[in-house]
Structures are given as C-alpha cells and as structure tokens.
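Handoff note, outgoing to incoming analyst
You'll be picking up this chain. Sequence as last confirmed:
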Amino acid sequence: LFRCIAEMALDFPLLSVRSARRFLRFVQKNGISGTAVLERTGIETSMLDNPDAYLSMRQVQHLLNNGNHLLNDHTSSFRFGQELDLQGHGLFGFALLRQRDFRKLANMVVQYLRVSLPLMDMEIHCTGELICIRLHDNWELKKLKPMVANIYMGSIYALASLVCRKFTFEFDFPCPGNSLAWQRLADGVEVKFNCPHNRVLMPLSGRQAKDDDNSMATYLATARSREQVQSDDSLKVVFK
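Most recent structure output, in case you need it:
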C-alpha cells in the first residue's frame, strides 16, 4: 500500500513549469538542445507555454536526469542554483533586500524554497553565531540527490550572500569530479564531502550587509525576473 501511494505521489502536480523553463534556458546557455533534455520526460512544449502549469515529480526527475547527463559537469547544478537569485525570484528578492535581521532572512529563504522548490525539505537551526540549514531527501532521489542538493545550495548562496560572506557546504556523498573545481565555486565558499548530512553553515560574525541606499537603488533598478528579461522566443529557440 505504501509503495502504491508513493508511486501515485510521483505523478501529482508539484513544481511550477517556470522552474523548468529556467532550467532549459540554463542548459541552452551551455550549448545543449532543449529537445534532447525533454526527451522521454512526458513534458510537452505546450505545457512550457502555460505559466500556470505544474510538473509532476516523475517528470522533474526525468528532466533533471537528462540535463545532468548532457551537461556532464558536476558543478553545473550549483551554478544553476546560483541563477535562482534575487532577480530570479522577483518580488521575493525585493523582500529580502529590505530584511536587516540575518536570522529572519535565513528563515525567509528556507520557507520560500520549501514552497517554490519542493524537491527536498529543509530545516534551520540558529546556535550562537552560527546558522545551519539542513536538507532532507523525502523523495528518495538516489542518484539525483547530489544534483538537487547542489541546486538548493547554489540558490541559498545566491540569496543569503546578501548579508553573509562565508559559507561552508557539507555533502553526504563523495566528491564528484575535480575537487579543485568545487573549491572555486564562489567567493567565501568551503565545500566538504562525505559528511553526515547535506547542510550549509553560515556564521553571523563578519557578515557584510548590503543595506545602504545606493545598493538598494542599484538592485531595484536592475532587478527584473528572468521570465521578464528573456522573451518567450528565447526559449522556443531551444526546440528548433
């Protein structure tokens, strides 16, 4: 019975098609055809044209599997997560810009990602001068877990770097690929593998808040969601 319920859950509408569109644009920038990424996913191009459509977990798994195989770069999922930043999150990004309390900002990031990217669950702990965000694999992602964990980590970095300059990312799997490439992911980032959990540690001390009026004006002047910046035609090129 449990297995039957789990199988049914895989076909339940879960993730906004907007996230799939962003992923397809990302792989396109890396020279990969969207047609190849969508092969045998059950995702029709008509679904991608409907901003109110949702993908099932089964479709998302096929999409990410195809993309991961074709990208052939273990760090690409973190880089994709980085693109889910203030501009990529639109109005939510503006809300973060106004948040001066780092603990509240971290909680906002966690709660937002739990809703907008429900592929993993998250929990947050604040102990002294350290904030810890831990990921939980509720879908038994298996081979996809490193990729999905890195998407989350990249997005957490992009959002929390607003007020934090140092991050330690811990993964519960062995280092895939070149270890040097992982240490060069971004400024102020330390990456560890074969740890007990998938989590990110962010110290409160030494944080660098971007709270001056000039920084705010710059963000507000340039921040538009990538769905607005890139026209529909820029995505359709992928399928030619």
